[in-house]
Specification:
- It is built from 17 helices and 16 strands.
- Helices cover 33% and strands 16% of the residues.
- The chain starts with 15 loop residues before the first helix and ends with a helix.
- The chain is globular.
- A hairpin with a 5-residue loop joins strand 11 and strand 12.
- The strands form four sheets. It has a five-stranded parallel beta sheet with strand order 3-2-1-4-16. The chain has a five-stranded parallel beta sheet with strand order 6-14-7-8-9.
Length: 462
C-alpha cells in the first residue's frame, strides 16, 4: 500500500499584486505531473461517498484513476458521461461543500482536490483537441424547447440530445451561457471556456436561438403550438434586489446584476474597444457577502478603483461566499467592513453617490437560515466614502414567463413550484429547474436539477 500524502497539491495562481490589475484567470491549473500526483492521493474507496456528494453523480474514483494512469483522454470521457460542463464545474463549483466534503481522505487529511482534477482533464481535452462526440444511435422524433442557456438548461439539452431527442435552446441575450457569461467574471471563468462547452453541445446537435425572449417573442403556449413536445424552463433568477433605503436611486448605485452584466457580457472592461463605458470612480463600495459580492468587489478593483470596501452585516464566519474567493479578495486588497450595514446613501450636487451612512451590528440569536441574526448597535453610525455602490444582496424571480404562462403555479416569492423528484411544474409537459425554482444557488445544483428534469422529460415523452 502506497504512503498517504496528507496535503493536496497547491494550485498555481497569479501573484495578487499583478492579478488585481488584470482580468486574466487567477488560478493557472495543474500540470500533468501535478494532476497525477494529486490523483495518486485518491484511496479508490469501494463505497465512494464522493459520488453521492456530486449533484450530477460523476464516477469520481474512476476518472481520477485514469488520471493517475496517465490516461487523460479516458478521464475526460468518464467525466463527460455525467457532466457536459466539466471545465466550468472544475472552476466555479463549491466542491468543498459537496464531493470533497465527504471525501474519506478528508477525515484525517486534506481531501482529494476533485475540482482541480476535473478542470485539468477538461482543459487537457481542449488543448489537445481530444474531445469525442458520442454517436446518437436512436432518434425519437420528439422536440424539446429549453428556455435559458444557463447551467440547468445546458445540462437538460445535453442529456436529452444523447437520449435521441431534438433540442432547441432559446436564449434572451445575444450570447448563450446565462449566468456563466453575464454573472461570473473573466478572471474566475474565462468566457472562451464557456463558449467551448457550448460549442460541444452544438456539435452534439443542439439548435441554439439567441435574442429570443420567451414570454415576449413567443410564450410557452406558443412553443407548444410550434410543435414542441415538452418545455424546460431554466431562466435563472435575474431580478435585481435592493435594500429600499434612502438614496438608492442616485447615480452610481448599481445592482450587481447590471454591474457584472455590463462588465462581463458587454465587455466594459475592454472599453473603448467595446463601447460599454461603466463609471465607478476611485472609491467603490459593495454591499453583500456572497460570491456575487466578491465578484463585484474584485471586478471594481480591476476596473481601476483605488479603494474597494466590502460592507457585510454579519461576520466573516457567516459569509456565504466560498473561502477561496474570500481569501482571493483579501489578498488583492479588498477592505472588509464586517458587522456593518448601510442605512442611507448620500450624493453630491450632481445627484451622484459620494457617501454611505452605515451602522455597526452585533450577532444575536439564529434566524430562519440558521445563522445568527445581526442586530443594530445603537449610536454606532459612521460614513464610508464611495463614488459608486454595488448592491450584491441577492436576486429574485423575473415574472415575465410566469405572468404569460397559464396554469403555471408559483410560490409567494414568484419562483416556479415543481415536483422535487422530477422538476415537473403544474402545467403538463412543462418542467423547470435551477434558480427560477430554488432562488440563487450554485452552478452544480442547477445542473443537478437539469439532470433530474431530463430524466423525467424522457420518461414523459416515452
Amino acid at each position: 500500500m502506497s504512503k498517504i500524502i496528507p496535503h493536496s497539491i497547491p494550485m498555481p495562481r497569479q501573484d495578487p499584486q499583478v492579478r488585481a490589475h488584470n482580468f486574466d484567470e487567477v488560478a493557472l491549473g495543474f500540470t500533468e505531473e501535478m494532476a497525477q500526483q494529486e490523483a495518486a492521493r485518491c484511496l479508490q474507496c469501494k463505497k465512494a461517498a464522493c459520488i453521492k456528494g456530486c449533484p450530477v453523480e460523476i464516477d469520481i474514483p474512476a476518472f481520477i484513476a485514469k488520471i493517475a494512469e496517465g490516461d487523460f483522454a479516458g478521464a475526460l470521457r468518464k467525466v463527460r458521461e455525467q457532466n457536459c460542463l466539466p471545465a466550468v464545474c472544475g472552476r466555479v463549483c463549491p466542491q468543498e461543500d459537496q464531493c470533497e466534503k465527504v471525501c474519506v481522505l478528508g477525515k484525517k487529511h486534506e481531501p482529494v482536490a476533485i475540482g482541480r482534477l476535473e478542470r485539468f482533464v477538461a482543459d487537457y481535452g481542449s488543448q489537445t483537441d481530444e474531445i469525442e462526440i458520442p454517436e446518437i444511435k436512436v432518434k425519437t422524433g420528439k422536440r424539446i424547447a429549453v428556455v435559458g442557456s444557463g447551467p440547468s438548461g445546458l445540462t437538460v439539452a445535453g442529456d436529452l440530445l444523447q437520449l435521441g431527442h431534438e433540442v432547441t435552446i432559446f436564449e434572451a441575450f445575444h450570447k448563450a451561457g446565462g449566468v456563466l457569461v453575464y454573472g461570473i467574471p473573466e478572471f474566475r471563468l474565462p468566457k472562451d471556456i464557456v463558449q467551448r462547452e457550448i460549442d460541444y453541445l452544438v456539435r452534439l446537435g443542439v439548435e441554439l436561438r439567441t435574442n429570443f425572449i420567451v414570454g415576449r417573442t413567443k410564450t410557452i403556449d406558443e412553443l407548444f403550438e410550434d410543435g414542441y413536445d415538452a418545455v424546460f424552463i431554466g431562466v435563472g433568477a435575474g431580478l435585481p434586489m435592493f435594500m429600499n433605503i434612502a438614496g438608492e436611486n442616485f447615480g452610481g448605485v448599481y445592482s450587481a446584476n447590471e454591474f457584472l452584466t455590463r462588465t462581463n457580457l458587454m465587455k466594459a472592461y475592454l472599453f473603448p474597444e467595446y463601447d460599454t463605458p461603466i463609471k465607478i470612480g476611485p472609491r467603490v463600495a459593495v454591499v453583500g457577502g456572497g460570491n456575487v459580492a466578491m465578484d463585484s468587489a474584485r471586478t471594481a478593483l480591476r476596473l481601476g478603483a483605488e479603494e474597494v470596501n466590502l460592507v457585510y452585516r454579519r461576520s466573516r464566519a457567516e459569509m456565504p461566499a466560498r473561502d477561496e474567493e474570500i481569501e482571493n479578495a483579501e489578498e488583492e486588497g479588498i477592505i472588509f467592513n464586517l458587522l456593518t450595514n448601510p442605512t442611507h446613501i448620500f450624493a453630491n450636487g450632481d445627484g451622484w453617490v459620494n457617501e454611505i451612512e452605515c451602522v455597526r451590528m452585533e450577532l444575536g440569536e439564529p434566524d430562519a437560515s440558521g445563522r445568527r441574526r445581526p442586530v443594530v448597535i445603537e449610536g454606532s453610525e459612521f460614513c464610508v466614502k464611495a463614488d459608486a455602490l454595488v448592491m450584491a444582496i441577492g436576486s429574485g424571480a423575473n415574472p415575465l414567463i410566469t405572468s404569460t404562462t397559464r396554469d403555471l403555479k408559483v410560490n409567494d416569492w414568484g419562483y416556479i413550484i415543481v415536483d422535487e423528484m422530477t422538476g415537473a411544474t403544474s402545467k403538463p409537459g412543462v418542467y423547470a429547474g435551477g434558480d427560477i425554482v430554488t432562488g440563487s444557488a450554485t452552478v452544480i445544483e442547477a445542473m443537478g436539477a437539469g439532470r433530474t428534469s431530463a430524466r423525467a422529460i424522457h420518461k414523459y415523452l416515452s
